[in-house]
Amino acid sequence: MKLEAGMAAIVTGGASGLGKASAKALADAGVKVAIFDINDEDGKAHAKAIGGTFHHVNIMDEQSVVDGFEAARAANGQERVTVHCAMASKRGKTLGWDKENHCYKRLPTEDYAFGAEGILVASYRIASHSALGMANSEPLNDDGERGSITLTASVAAQDGQIGQTIYGSCKSGVNGMVLPMARDLMDMGIRVNSVMPGIFATPLMLGMKDRNPKMWDQLNASVPFPKRLGEPEEFASLIVEIASNTYINGHQFRLDGAIRMPPR
Asked: Is 167 an active-site residue?
């Protein structure tokens, strides 16, 4: 699929981190980008900087997502590229020690359900609403392609660490969604893929650089090569390639500098 002026894209979580870099990379390719985020200040500023639009969207709320797609399409036209980076989750061990009561306590089912909603259900919500719009649009090329959807998983989908039962299993579910959804949508010419980033220099991780420089150095050293955290622009580069390359479909990409996460 050729990325060009007049084409529209949607990036969730586009106000910061991997989503912010992806939105910029797509805009640099000439695409009109709509940012979905709940961070109004940063989202509006970034949308203005890249010549896109901002829409306050809560990925955990069905109506908010429906309204966001409607507003983005009214502003920019039907999106042909959707990149889903936003998420919400909690963490905790399945069983943890309760120091006050001197016994084990269980990670609440409600905490797991929150993560499943914020990662797995939200990924389906964004992908399926985008696919519906793409399916009702004209093909873009001789292959009959109508669009590309890229979901964000994590290396935790394969290397879930202690305390990542929610995050790891739900990100694994995102990967598990890719192939059957790609097959569901094959007759409509809509591609579905996912990216599993390793440790990236997002604002959350960069905060550690000053708070705990020793741990920061250990994280950088833990990556086989290059011995540093990934740059959001490197994630964004893969996002653009996936959108551009029509033969990439039903695939889950690790982007991690060859790291394999230990138990803790």
From this structure: yes
Cα–Cα dist 209/160, whole Å? 23
Specify the pTM: 0.95
Which stretches of the chain drop beneath a pLDDT of 50? Answer: none
- From 104, 124, 167, 247, active-site residue: 167
In contact, 147 and 131? CB cutoff 8 Å: yes
105 with 96: CB under 8 angstroms?
Answer: yes
Instruction: State the DSSP code for 200.
Output: B
- Here the tokens at position 18 are 């991997």
| pLDDT value for 210 | 83
Residue 223's Cβ-count burial label (10 Å; 0-12, 13-18, 19+) is middle
Q: How far apart are CA 88 and CA 167, in angstroms?
A: 9
Residue 195: how many other CB atoms lie within 10 Å: 24
Q: Write the pLDDT tens digit of every residue in 115-145.
A: 999 999 999 999 999 999 999 999 999 999 9
Question: Alpha-carbon distance 10 to 83, whole Å?
Answer: 6
Please state, for a pLDDT cut of 70, what percent of the chain lies above it: 100
Question: 8-199+233-255, which class in CATH?
Answer: alpha beta
Query: CB-side exposure of 118: number of CA atoms within 13 Å?
Result: 16
Report pLDDT for 204: 82
